[in-house]
Amino acid sequence: MIEIGGATYAFDDPLVLGTLGAAALLVLFLVLILAALRGAARSARMAEPLFQHLNYLGQTVQGLSDGQQQLAGGLRSVSEAQAMAQARMLETLEKRLEDVTLRMSETLHGTATRTARSLGELHQRLETIDKAQANIEKLSGDVLGLQDILSNKQTRGAFGEIQLHDIVAKALPPDAFTMQATLSNGRRADCLVHLPNPPGPIVIDSKFPLEAYEALRRAATGRERDEAARAFRTAVRTHIKAIAERYVLEGETADGALMFLPSEAVYAELHASFPEIVREGFSARVWIVSPTTCMATLNTMRAVLKDARMREQAGLIRKQLAMLHRDVELVVERVDKLTTHFGQARRDLDEIGTAAERAGKRAARLDSFDFGDAPDVEGARLAPLTQPDA
Question: What does the alpha-carbon distance between residue 329 and residue 203 come to, in Å, rounded to a whole number?
């Protein structure tokens, strides 16, 4: 129950309930208004920077509008200038296009001429290439033939002998060497160079251990290379021993000989990988040479031969001078004898002159002699008219 103004009301009275509801709604409305006012104040405080920013944006938009107007004016100026520049550029381009067209025409004409000339040269070069190709094919056949030759031991030996003969014939005069010369022991040397003593005639023998060298080059593993190297050493040592025993003869040849290797590759491999074999050759007085070093050695021998022949010629000249000196002595002796004969003849002529003068005087006396008055002298001796003895 509730009492208001002397009147009592029950809680379940509709009027009381309506009044309480109205009061509650009023209070709730006031609370909502207060909350709304607080929110509005807080929103106003929060919206203040936004208003400032909006103001700034407005000013910026105004500045952009002004700038846009200025930009529009600049764009119109630029557009006009661009139009003028474009017009001038078009004129320039037209002139340059005409010049380029003219130059292109001249260039194309010259290019066509050069192209025609180049095509002609290309045709000639193609013909040359065709000939070179034919030569290459021929050379390939020759190489195959050379391989066939080198695959056979006898033909390989003949190849080395022919190469040695070509080198020796180019380096030495014909009478300075003999190919396939037979020595006193019955052995036949590939080449015997007739050097003077010392050192005496020296033998050059061609050897070509190609099989051992090719096995060495084909070796792929360490074991194969060791076996090939052992075979190569054996082959070269066998050749060195054979040359030292057959072609170094005391009193007949020099105290050494040359082993000719007809391959620079084999020679290089020998000196690069087997220097002990080269030293063994030195010890056996067998010097190993390649085509290049053989030519150098033969040129040195040629100088030795030239010096020896000059010494021989000097001896002949001295002999001829001695004979000339004897001839001069004989001439001097004969001149002396002739001088003696001339002196005797001069004396004889003087005596003849004297006798003639006497005879003339006597003839004069006889011419003036008076025979009538002359006494007859018995036994008078008349002067002889003949030439008196000297």
Answer: 48
